[in-house]
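Re: weekly structure request thread

Next one in the queue (442 aa):
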Amino acid sequence: MMPLKKRLLSLKEDIRVAVIGCGRKGKGIIYQVFATPGMRPVVIVDHHIEKAVACAKWLNRDYEIVRSLEGLDRAIERGRLAVTDNAQLVVSSELINVMVECTDSIAEGGAHALKALQHHQHVVMMNAKADLMYGPLLLQVGNEQGVVYSTCDGTPAAALQNLIDEIDLWGLDIVLAGAFIPNFDNVLPTLKIVRETDRSQHGHHINTDDIDTDIKIQMAILANSISGKAATQPTRVAHTQKDVITAYDLHLVTQDIVPMVDCIPSGESLNGIAVVAHTDLKFQQELLRQQGLGEGPFYVFHRPYVAGHIESTACMMEAYFNGTARLHPRHGMKMNVFSYAKKDLKRGDILDGMNGEKTIGRLERIEDHQHYAGLPICISEGLKLRADVAKNKPITLDDVSYDADQLAFSLYFRALQANTQKVIPNKRARVVEENLPYIISM
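Done, posted below.
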């Protein structure tokens, strides 16, 4: 198969990409698409239109502000960069090949992706919170429409999926996948050690509750792709790769062959992502030992960076050329990040959501909440408590006042019921003429 860049250079027409959201992530992706031969940003959207205009000027591109779907399509056909504050125009266009959702709006981001898929656009999700909350629903709709739904490259979850796919191809068993949290001793000046007798046979474990919720969301996204589970809490901060192996009870994983995911507390020398894999094959162990990876049977494969927007475009190309995703929640909603009380909370308190003063997020499997419906922290902000909740106790859906018909919750409940395994015949797939030789040769 021809390499992606050569395939891009051989295209008769550029891949037309729309980006919704001109914040730091969106601006970086717009730049990268513009810098990639064979790809073209055709429309940029921000609800503050001056930000979208500033981005177009920064790219030194001729642009026009559009207010209607007809005006958007005319601009695309004339090769001009369209700028708008109306995302509904973009997700309704049939002239866009790939839509990248880069906003921080959870419910609106999910709605943008849903409508884009319904209009036969491939959707790449850089909006991690919407990806986690609504990904299974969006994957189902993408299957039904014959288009791709994918998490964006350049995220920890996508980088880990790439590494996992490679190691899995070698025949090793995946045991643990995670993102390093560097300078952990400094993040928590007084390192909190807690006893977790209900989760492990070992004594003292590091309390990772205060780790940035955004990283936990990335791990949940990955878990929903690989059917992972939450790791037992580590017993130490990893200052070397070898420490990653000794910080977890990895033998428990090899018994049930369900990989763990975690935010790995580390010293300042470890950054990026890591995958721990296992093999008991002596021939493989000898080669890995010669490569300096240790005596086995557990091995750490470390990538010291996640390159953000710089590596964001490969998944867009693969969706367009191959109809494949980098990763998506193929196993449905297996994990989420659920709300717990950070302190004693009283009836009538208003929750402040992610990284707030009242709640923490814990990475847990849905099945851990069989006896009660947990409240995902991504959609908790602004909800009023209906009951007191003690410190470190879970906050359930029954504990808060919410409207099940509100967009954030209605999409979530649909995502919980989504059929991500159903494969619909690709009758309406977006196959353009210049792609046919590649598809036929695959």
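The chain has a mean pLDDT of 88. The chain has three domains: 13-154+310-331+423-441, 156-306, 335-404.
Next request, please.
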